[in-house]
Design a protein that fits this description.
117 residues, alpha/beta, Hypothetical Protein Mth938, Chain: A, 8 strands, 22% helix, globular
């Protein structure tokens, strides 16, 4: 799917997604990915909280895309991020991409962690 929401502060928005990939800022990223104020990086999944928690000073909320379907987050994952001061919201990855773009366009301090479809 292609998306057309443009951020206002120069940060990268999600342009599109499909089976196994996300297009962010015009560049294709395969597999799980994190979109942070510092940039886009591969994400190791729920056991990889360090890069997400490191963004705590710049992020108020982390949207987690759980793949094609919504799925609960592991409690340890949520606890680690909330302990760092980041609110965590989870939804299916397509909804997380759309929500991220809207919040980004509103100037919110948001980050995104995505499991591929």
């Amino acid at each position: 799917m292609q998306m057309n929401e443009a951020p206002r502060d120069g940060r990268l928005a999600v342009d599109g997604y499909g089976p196994g990939f996300f297009r962010i800022g015009g560049r294709v990223h395969r597999g799980a990915v994190a979109v942070l104020p510092s940039g886009v990086l591969p994400w190791g999944g729920y056991g990889d909280t360090a890069p997400l928690a490191a963004a705590a000073g710049a992020v108020d909320v982390l949207l987690v895309g759980t793949g094609a379907q919504i799925a609960p987050l592991p409690e340890g994952f949520r606890a680690a991020l909330e302990g760092a001061g980041i609110a965590v919201e989870f939804m299916a990855s397509p909804a997380a991409c759309r929500t991220f773009n809207v919040l980004l366009a509103e100037g919110r301090r948001v980050a995104l962690a995505l499991i591929a479809l």
